[in-house]
Every structure is written in structure tokens, then in C-alpha cells.
Design a protein that fits this description.
The chain is of the alpha/beta class. About 30% of the residues lie in helices and about 15% in strands. It binds NADP nicotinamide-adenine-dinucleotide phosphate.
């Protein structure tokens, strides 16, 4: 049966797309990885995943609780290197459970370390990426090594989850207005076009049918070189998802330049 999702206007639509799942942070112990992949397949009703990603280079304490905490509410981490877990993700490919494997939130040093031992290289690195955190250096680093960069929160995460509800946010940035008028496009379309045109792959999230359609209508125009440069200078290294609860872990990825 094809799963369905409810949209904000109350209507439903079938979920059609790639089978992508992430290895969760509590499942980094090598003996857990293949089982976690099988469990995802069972939940999705699929025989294989198109892409299996390691969500985060930092391991949380093993167990059923996705965010395990101590009595004081502190997140419990585990002293686990991500390489043994990555090797088991390679095993998922060999077993036919996943067509491709990838990473998320890995910095350049961590990615290089994975590439130095990988027998099945990661096809992508999914990172927070939008004009306020454009990841140009990491994107160039990845491109040279044949690793695609997919961008989460490409619209600047204009949702209450990121705690910026009520502020103009990226899509309300006044500097986008002249570009919207020039190209007759919405702020979201300008931002998504920018990310695509420089070779990255934005993953906008929407529950609104009109937004979903709007977000696909970005392949009928080109931003000029000058406008691309103007968008480059939006960068302020601003993270909506710094995951600071993991900042003291030795695998925390955001303590280096890129
Ligand atoms: N791998 C990771 O570590 C990680 C971390 C965080 C997030 N993610 C993933 O990244 C994806 C996106 O995350 P996100 O929600 O933070 O960011 P986002 O895609 O930048 O923003 C989503 C928000 O933008 C709105 N929106 C979408 N299209 C729009 C349009 N054309 N005009 C105006 N508003 C529009 C949506 O509202 P409507 O529904 O009303 O359209 C929604 O509130 C999610 O699937 C999330 O699971 C991954």
C-alpha cells in the first residue's frame, strides 16, 4: 500500500519518492546497524532503500530512547567512532538492503576520514545549507571528491521548530525583493534556484500543495553571475540547527572551519 500524507488544507496525497532513511544516533554500535536498516525497511514496507544516511557523526547512548537523557536532563552520548558504523552501512549495500549510502552533518575532516577507508564511498553529505549558511567551501570540497551536497533547511527553516517564528527570517529578507521582481519569482524560488545553480541539492519541506508546486518551478530561469554573487554575501555562518547539546563530544562536527 502506498502511504499517504495529509496536507495543511486537509487533503491527502500519496507519498511518492525515493526510499531514504537515516541511521539514528543511538544505533552506531556495529551490531545494531544492519538491524536498524532492516527495521526501517519493515516500517516503510520496502525491500531496499535507495539511500541510507548516517544522520550525525556523534553517537548517543544505545537503547530505545531516541534522545537518551540522565536524571538532570542531559543528553547521553556514547564513546563510539563513526567508522565501524559506516563499515556496517557498507554491509547494508552488500546485503542488498540499500542501493547507496551517505552521510549527514559531517565536516570536511570527518568526510575525508570516511573516504580514506571506504570501500563503498558515501554518495552525499546532507548538511544545513541556505544563503545564511551557504557552505560554499564544504560544497567545493565535496564536489572535488564526487560527494553530492544535499541541503536541509534550504529555506532557512521558517518554522516554529527552529524557534524563529514571527521573525521575517530568510524568506522575508528585504534583499531578496529586487531579485523576486527581476525574475518574477518568489523568495523561496530565488533561494532554491541559487542552491541548485551552484551545484547543490536543496530538500525543501512543505505540507502545502501550492508551496510544493512553487518549489519545483525553478528550472525555467538562470540567476545572473552578479546576482549569484549578491546571494553569496548573505552568508553569516548562521546555523538554525547547531545541535549544541553534543558540542562537548569529540565527534561534534561544527567546531572546525568547514
Ligand atoms: N539531517 C539533519 O540533521 C536534519 C536536521 C534538520 C532538518 N532536517 C530535514 O530537513 C528538511 C527541511 O527542514 P526545515 O523544516 O528545517 O526547513 P525548510 O525546508 O527550510 O523549511 C520548511 C518550512 O518552509 C515552509 N515552506 C516550504 N515551501 C515554502 C514556500 N514556497 N514559501 C514559503 N514557505 C515555504 C514550510 O511551510 P509549509 O508546510 O506551509 O509549506 C515549512 O514551514 C526536513 O525534512 C527535515 O527533516 C534534517
Amino acid at each position: 500500500m502506498i502511504p499517504r500524507v495529509q496536507l495543511s488544507d486537509g487533503s491527502e496525497m500519496p507519498v511518492i519518492g525515493l526510499g531514504i532513511r537515516e541511521l539514528w544516533n543511538t544505533c552506531h554500535r556495529p551490531e545494531r546497524v544492519v538491524a536498524a536498516c532492516r527495521s526501517s525497511l519493515q516500517n516503510l514496507g520496502l525491500d531496499y532503500l535507495d539511500l541510507y544516511l548516517m544522520h550525525w557523526p556523534v553517537a548517543f547512548q544505545d537503547g530505545d530512547e531516541p534522545f537518551p537523557r540522565d536524571a538532570d536532563g542531559r543528553l547521553l552520548h556514547e564513546d563510539a567512532d563513526y567508522l565501524p558504523a559506516y563499515r556496517e552501512m557498507e554491509q547494508c549495500v552488500r546485503l542488498g538492503l540499500a542501493r547507496s549510502i551517505g552521510l549527514a552533518n559531517f565536516n570536511s575532516e570527518q568526510l575525508a576520514r570516511v573516504l580514506s577507508v571506504a570501500t563503498i564511498p558515501p554518495v552525499n553529505n546532507q548538511v544545513e545549507c541556505h544563503p545564511y549558511l551557504n557552505q560554499l567551501t564544504l560544497a567545493k570540497f565535496c564536489a572535488k571528491r564526487g560527494v553530492a551536497v544535499t541541503c536541509f533547511s534550504p529555506l532557512g527553516a521558517p518554522s516554529p521548530v527552529a524557534g524563529i517564528s514571527g521573525t521575517p527570517g530568510l524568506l522575508g529578507d528585504a534583499r531578496l525583493r529586487p531579485l523576486c521582481a527581476k525574475y518574477r519569482k518568489t523568495p523561496a524560488q530565488i533561494v532554491l534556484r541559487y542552491l541548485v545553480q551552484r551545484g547543490t541539492y536543496p530538500l525543501p519541506k512543505s505540507q502545502d500543495k501550492d508551496h510544493m508546486i512553487e518549489n519545483t518551478q525553478i528550472f525555467d530561469f538562470d540567476l545572473s553571475t552578479g546576482d549569484m554573487h549578491d546571494l553569496d554575501v548573505f552568508d553569516s555562518r548562521m546555523r538554525f540547527y547547531p545541535f549544541i547539546e553534543s558540542k562537548d563530544d569529540y565527534n561534534y562536527p561544527f567546531g572546525v572551519d568547514f
